[in-house]
Amino acid sequence: MSAVSTLKVGTDALSGTVIPAPAMATLAVAGTAARFPVGRVFCIGRNYRWHTGEPRPAEMPGWFMKPSNAVVPAGGRLRYPPATQDFCHEVELVVALHQGGSDIDPAQVLMHHVWGYAVGLDMTRRDLQQQAKRTGGPWEPAKAFDHSAPCTPLVPAAACRHARRGAIWLAVNGAERQRADVADMLWPVPELVAMLSRSVALLPGDLIYTGTPAGVGPLQPGDTVTGGVEGVGEFSMTVERGPVGAAATPSPTHSEGVSP
Ligand code: MN
User: Fold this and answer.
1) What is residue 93's predicted lDDT score, i.e. its pLDDT?
2) Separation of 13 CA from ligand 1 center, angstroms?
């Protein structure tokens, strides 16, 4: 008789799993009590011109991922993470999918796949990213840390006309650092969704952070970060140093309205 056949394990009464199932990450839906369930978080690399007259590269941008629990409300406190001396902001338009698929036709994306839009921050430990680029190491330490993807409430696509144009900006202590128009994306949303779907099967609940304009830079504890996308949302957060090594804990606003 194998040891496994006599093994007894307890299960959580509610979830039936051997440890209580973690709450699913969710995003607020603007102006409602409804929540959007967050699946995976895809992030697009360079997708705006950072220099005037720069030609569009022939190659589509690269992509990477963050865990779903990196998504926290873009409001209140922005935790300065451990293990970095160079904590950088990247403001981005965020796309939320309600229909997935493989080999998606770009012409179908806005009509059939995009549920809504939000404003997100692809927070980056830049020193760790430079190190990863130097050594050929993975980007997760630079990009996929706790609270690294603050996001405003989602706006349904119809309510913001698919965010085809509109200013995107970010300021630190009132001084503007990033400004562009989402119409300036090198690869627009339909192309990005189609590109990802040729590489992985996209799923309902997936978020896509669509790349940041020029002007990324470091934040310090005490800084106030504001920004937004015209017609989609705005945010204001204050950078605070958290206890080093502490596990992520959902902020009270993040868990509001989560059903078990
Ligand atoms: Mn980014």
Assistant:
1) 98
2) 40
